[in-house]
Write a structure and sequence with these properties.
It is built from 23 helices and 23 strands. The protein is an alpha+beta fold and 687 residues long.
Length: 687
């Protein structure tokens, strides 16, 4: 086999599958702990996952991960084989999660191109001590059985020595064909990983295709026909069957004992598509993997794993298509011409483009389930450390959002859940004194609302205290008007300001005045908003409103001088022509406009961005009222150009460094080929 294999592809596969296994394992441990103990299925699942992580990490030569995975595997092997009666399930969960955290930390280092250099020695010693104590505390593992095991081991070793000279003669010939799931990608890397693991228990391993990485056609051959392997091993058929069953993303496999290696290879090279009939006088075994044993379903087979970068490129191409279509339809050379058939064709093209855009967008959508499931671990750890009893309810986990948005909202959701437990929920004693259930509840809910997704983090705790927040706001110099005019929502929004905290005591979870402002900033980065509702002694609900996607949006294009800007349609409340008599000035000299008895600030874009324009008188231009988080302002522009769907493109880094782009979230290319800057309404409000 050629050594010129793609190390980067191998590492990508390792990271992808190990991260999936980590998420799966964490959920298995927490589910079993919540159920009051580990079921037989749960023990087997933990053992299987740790065995897989151990094997793949050993192949990648990450010794520290291999050592920890092996230790936990040994622990759960003992549980599987002996079913101990006396077992501290809470301690078992703690030590398993501690090992999982170590593996997760090392995998994160590898992902960030750092050395996986963590020291697992203390952790491994703790696992070994727990296993030793477990063996001592269980009566059915008596001294006699231990002595018998020792004697059996000694006898086995003596037998091994006696049979060492004849061991080669006891090797059996095997043939295996492994077919991977459709769309799993990197079949060549998966085949290499399988063969590398097989070499630990087999000899004289040969395979078709012979050169997995050197031959550019090998991936297609493996995808179509699977990887065919011949080898010799002193392992039993049943042991090898178990080995192949644990192959990740395997659709099917066939294992045959008794054929000579030469026959298998010649048969495959000759292009035989059927398996030879077994000879009556040949002691062969042949079995196709039990469908119940190898988890495979039609739904799994129809799923294709695609690199996110490819989806991003596809989305970019669809965006360019949308722009090109607009440029064709709005070409100034077509004005005044009678082109009825052309416009009919253009309408059909737009219909197809919209359909293509919807499909590509749906491909990028992923459910919030994985993000929500991670919160069970947060709730578990915090409730133990804070001595609070907490139940987590999850609603609408199947709700989907853009993959890129998920990456921005995971940390804010985690922080808000931690905050709900630390700040919001009372201790069991306090809850009982108030007549509440001893167990506090945190609810995570997601649902669609138009073109947005609402994520609500709700608790049934003590709620926010308006007076307490106002008192801290006064100390920080944030209150500059009559407090009776400040709504509850506005008061509650103070908690998202940098350095603002109502907690005097600093804990490892909160009280430092950092975190909530970062939450608001991260949500704002994806064009989302955050709002708070709270009732004393009833609880608090924090609602995140985020767009389905960042790639394409409906926008209103406006003109200021020779410049064009685009406002998100979702932020626009109304547009109108203002009268001179509606304009007033506040004590600080700022322009305001009176609309239906309410005063709103006026923001002149030509002044903000230093744009030359002849339209400076209010009645000559257009007012666009926009709102964000219960606040509204009126933006003054020369004229409205029109509504259209735009492809959002980020500004280059060197431009973002200038202060002049404050209030600009990106740019887009219009149908006439000109560039329009996309306005960030939230940032304009702060201005």
């Amino acid at each position: 086999m050629s050594n010129s294999f793609n190390q980067e592809a191998l590492l990508d596969m390792y990271l992808f599958e190990t991260n999936q296994l980590i998420e799966q394992l964490e959920q298995v441990i927490i589910d079993n702990e919540t159920a009051g103990g580990f079921s037989e299925e749960g023990v087997n699942e933990v053992f299987r996952i740790m065995h897989t992580i151990k094997g793949s990490s050993a192949m990648m030569m990450y010794e520290n991960i291999t050592t920890v995975a092996h230790s936990i595997e040994d622990l759960f092997f003992f549980l599987r084989e002996n079913s101990p009666v006396e077992l501290n399930y809470e301690k078992l969960s703690d030590i398993a999660l501690e090992g999982l955290d170590f593996i997760k930390s090392e995998v994160d280092k590898i992902t960030n191109k750092k050395d996986a250099d963590g020291d697992p020695s203390i952790l491994v010693d703790d696992i070994k001590k727990f296993l030793f104590t477990l063996k001592e505390n269980n009566d059915h593992i008596s001294k006699d059985s231990v002595e018998n095991n020792i004697n059996q081991t000694v006898n086995e070793k003596m037998d091994d020595k006696v049979s060492e000279s004849s061991e080669v003669l006891s090797l059996n010939n095997y043939k295996a064909t492994v077919i991977f799931e459709e769309g799993c990608e990197m079949e060549d890397v998966r085949a290499y990983s399988l063969i590398n693991n097989l070499k630990d228990i087999a000899e004289e391993v040969q395979h078709i295709p012979e050169d997995i990485f050197g031959d550019e056609n090998s991936t297609d051959l493996i995808r179509k026909n699977g990887i065919s392997i011949s080898f010799k091993s002193n392992k039993s058929y049943e042991e090898l069957h178990k080995f192949f069953v644990q192959t990740p993303l395997m659709k099917d496999f066939e294992l045959t004992q008794g054929e000579s290696k030469e026959e298998v290879l010649e048969e495959k090279k000759a292009g035989a598509n059927t398996v030879r009939e077994e000879k009556m006088d040949s002691p062969k075994k042949k079995e196709v993997a039990d469908k119940n044993y190898v988890k495979s379903s039609s739904s799994q087979q129809s799923i294709i794993s695609v690199n996110v970068n490819k989806l991003d490129k596809l989305m970019d191409m669809v965006g360019e298509l949308v722009i090109s279509q607009a440029m064709v339809v709005e070409n100034p050379d077509l004005k005044g011409l009678s082109l009825e058939n052309f416009y009919k064709a253009a309408q059909q093209l737009q219909k197809i483009t919209n359909g293509l855009q919807d499909i590509v967008m749906s491909i990028r959508m992923v459910p919030l389930e994985t993000t929500f499931q991670k919160m069970y671990r947060i709730v578990r750890d915090m409730s133990k450390k804070l001595s609070k009893e907490v139940k987590l309810n999850i609603i609408g986990a199947e709700t989907e959002v853009d993959k890129n948005i998920i990456e921005h909202i995971s940390d804010p959701i985690m922080h808000l859940v931690r905050n709900a437990i630390d700040h919001g929920l009372e201790t069991p004693e306090e809850r009982e004194a108030k007549g509440k259930p001893k167990i506090g509840t945190v609810t995570l809910e997601a649902k669609n609302e138009g073109g947005d997704v609402l994520i609500i983090i709700r608790d049934d705790g003590k709620g926010l205290r308006r007076e307490q927040i106002l008192e801290r706001a006064r100390k920080n110099g944030l209150v500059n008007r009559d407090e009776s005019e400040i709504s509850d929502k506005e008061v509650f929004s103070y908690i998202f300001l940098p350095g603002f905290s109502t907690k005097d005591k600093v804990t490892e979870f909160s009280g430092r005045g950092v975190g909530m402002d970062v939450v608001a900033k991260n949500i704002g980065t994806v064009g989302g908003t955050i709002s708070v509702d709270s009732v004393p002694d009833k609880g608090t609900a924090i609602t995140l409103k985020i767009p389905l996607t960042l790639a394409i949006m409906d926008g209103m294009t406006i003109k200021v001088g020779k410049s064009t800007y685009t406002l998100p349609i979702i932020s626009i409340q109304e547009s109108f022509r203002a009268k001179e008599e509606d304009i007033i000035t506040d004590p600080d000299g700022n322009e305001m406009i009176m609309i239906r008895g309410e005063c709103y600030p006026i923001l002149r874009l030509h002044q903000l961005y230093k744009v030359k324009t002849e339209v400076t008188n209010i009645p000559e231009g257009i007012m666009i009222m926009v709102n964000h988080e219960e606040k509204s302002i009126c933006i003054f522009a020369d004229e409205l150009i029109g509504e259209q769907q735009v492809v959002v493109k980020s500004l280059p880094e060197y431009i973002r460094r200038f202060n002049k782009v404050k209030g600009i979230s990106g740019c887009t290319l219009l149908g006439d080929g000109s560039i329009s800057l996309i306005l960030d309404v939230a940032e304009l409000m702060n201005h």
